[in-house]
């Protein structure tokens, strides 16, 4: 997943909501004024939930489950609050042509699409094949990064989480067509999207 404000906040400060969307947001920069307000509101409400609800639960569970194991080894367990922001380095996975132009903290290292799970190797070989002219995908970041690398256009059918943002960015950049995953989707709609992508000279 690309670097987003939840991640950068652990090693530096949150990214500006005026230029960076939440990882679950469908907004793609450049933002309208309304989108900027929506992104700011998302940061405010998620931060409030994290500070007043989630962090209390995490602190309780840390004291109950983790601290005793540290102390059993003869060490003093640090307070949960001391541990929250002590990450020394964070890795984020993205593709340089797909990620937003963002000023990132020095302690955040971007891995430009090099992480690879064994289960992805078959898909990787298919996208690399010269006869692959189109990729139908849910719009996950690794699949999207791979299609960029091999220059394969996409029909994106997002289902969950960051897939909506990834497909929206791909459409905006001109190498994808979005098809909504809903009960009314039919073969004709999918066929139309495939034909549009295949006949588009871009």
Report what the structure shows:
By secondary structure, the protein is mainly α. It folds into 2 domains: 5-111, no CATH class; 118-199, Glycogen Phosphorylase B (Rossmann fold, 3-Layer(aba) Sandwich). Helices cover 46% and strands 8% of the residues. Helix 4 (121-128) packs parallel to helix 5 (141-150). The longest helix is centred in the first third of the chain and has 40 residues, at 33-72. It is elongated and about 65 Å long. The chain starts with a helix and ends with a helix. 21% of the residues are buried. This is UDP-glycosyltransferase UGT40K1. It holds the Pfam family UDPGT. It comes from Operophtera brumata (Winter moth). Keywords: Glycosyltransferase, Transferase. One of its GO terms (molecular function) is UDP-glycosyltransferase activity.
Main attributes of the structure:
2 domains; three-stranded parallel beta sheet; 202 residues; mainly alpha; two-stranded parallel sheet; 46% helix; Rossmann fold
Number of domains: 2
Overall 3D form: elongated
- Count helical runs: 7
User: Please, what is the average pLDDT?
Assistant: 80
Radius of gyration: 20 Å
Q: How are the strands of the largest sheet arranged?
A: 3-4-5
How many E-type strands? 5
Strand content: 5-15%
Main sheet specs: 3 strands, parallel
User: Oligomeric state of the chains?
Assistant: single chain
What's the order of the H and E elements? HHHEEHEHEHEH
Question: Which percent bin holds the helix content?
Answer: 40-55%
- The helix-and-strand class reads mainly alpha
Separation, N- and C-terminal Cα atoms: 27 Å
Which runs of at least 5 residues are low in confidence (pLDDT < 50)?
Answer: 113-121
């Amino acid at each position: 997943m690309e670097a987003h404000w939840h991640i950068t906040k652990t090693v530096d400060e949150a990214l500006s909501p005026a230029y960076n969307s939440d990882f679950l947001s469908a907004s793609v920069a450049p933002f309208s004024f309304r989108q900027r307000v929506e992104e700011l509101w998302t940061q405010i409400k998620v931060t409030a939930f994290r500070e007043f609800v989630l962090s209390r639960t995490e602190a309780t569970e840390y004291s109950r489950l983790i601290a005793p194991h540290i102390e059993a080894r003869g060490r003093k367990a640090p307070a949960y609050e001391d541990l929250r922001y002590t990450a020394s380095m964070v890795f984020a996975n993205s593709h340089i042509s797909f990620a937003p132009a963002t000023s990132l903290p020095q302690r955040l290292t971007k891995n430009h699409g090099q992480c690879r799970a064994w289960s992805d190797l078959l898909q990787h070989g298919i996208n690399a094949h010269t006869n692959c002219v189109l990729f139908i995908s849910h719009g996950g970041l690794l699949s999207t990064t791979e299609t960029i690398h091999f220059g394969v256009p996409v029909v994106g059918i997002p289902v969950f989480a960051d897939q909506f943002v990834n497909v929206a960015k791909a459409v905006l950049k001109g190498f994808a067509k979005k098809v909504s995953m809903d009960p009314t989707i039919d073969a004709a709609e999918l066929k139309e999207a495939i034909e549009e992508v295949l006949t588009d000279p871009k």
